[in-house]
Write a structure and sequence with these properties.
Belongs to the sigma-70 factor family. ECF subfamily. This protein is an all-alpha fold and 193 residues long. The protein contains 9 helices and no strands. Helices cover 74% and strands 0% of the residues.
Length: 193
């Protein structure tokens, strides 16, 4: 925990070594966040790097009221910046859906906050979320995965709260159908064994 505090202090002082350590430590985490919004690998890498630039420029604004939760607070702040950076990029591109695969090695990045089963579920969920129409996908990501309220989503995306709620309901329905279909296929496969 002391190492994180030292890195944060260095980043707040604009020290290149601390910035590099933070970047290396949280790059995989940031890239996974970006992939939920932008699926073309090369573009996601660019957006993640843009997010780190914003993060380092605004590091003086980072605060943590509970030192025992320093890393968790930092990761939440990183997530917020990455989500906002991805949404800004989608807005610039007029929310054109990104197409492309996520290289397997990205999933191999260790996220120490999740066990292997959680990481597998997360990977499967993101694959299904990727198939959602763009307007449903963005609202689902923001509300369910990143914890934004419908009011915050409406403000960020320039839509009404009702549209946000409707898109979330449609996204959930789509995902439920997908997951139910998979469960039925898996049950049929197991019965044939």
């Amino acid at each position: 925990m002391e190492q994180i505090a030292d890195i944060i202090t260095g980043c707040a002082s604009n020290e290149a070594k601390s910035q590099r350590l933070l970047y290396e430590r949280y790059y995989g985490y940031a890239l996974k966040i970006i992939f939920r919004y932008i699926y073309r690998y090369e573009k996601a890498v660019d957006v993640a790097n843009d997010g780190f630039v914003k993060l380092f420029r605004n590091f003086g604004k980072f605060t943590c009221d509970a030192p025992e939760h320093l890393e968790k607070t930092l990761m939440g702040w990183i997530r917020k910046i990455m989500v906002n950076t991805a949404i800004d990029e989608l807005r610039r591109q007029h929310m054109i859906p990104e197409i492309g695969g996520i290289p397997e090695y990205v999933w191999e990045e260790q996220d120490h906050s999740q066990n292997a089963e959680q990481q597998l579920f997360y990977k499967e969920l993101i694959i299904h979320v990727k198939e959602l129409p763009p307007s449903y996908r963005v609202v689902f990501n923001m509300h369910v995965i990143d914890g934004y309220s419908h009011q915050e989503i409406a403000t960020q995306l320039g839509i009404t709260v009702g549209t946000s709620k409707s898109n979330l309901a449609k996204a959930r329905l789509h995902l439920q159908k997908k997951l139910n279909k998979e469960d039925i296929q898996e049950a049929g496969y197991a019965a044939n064994k």
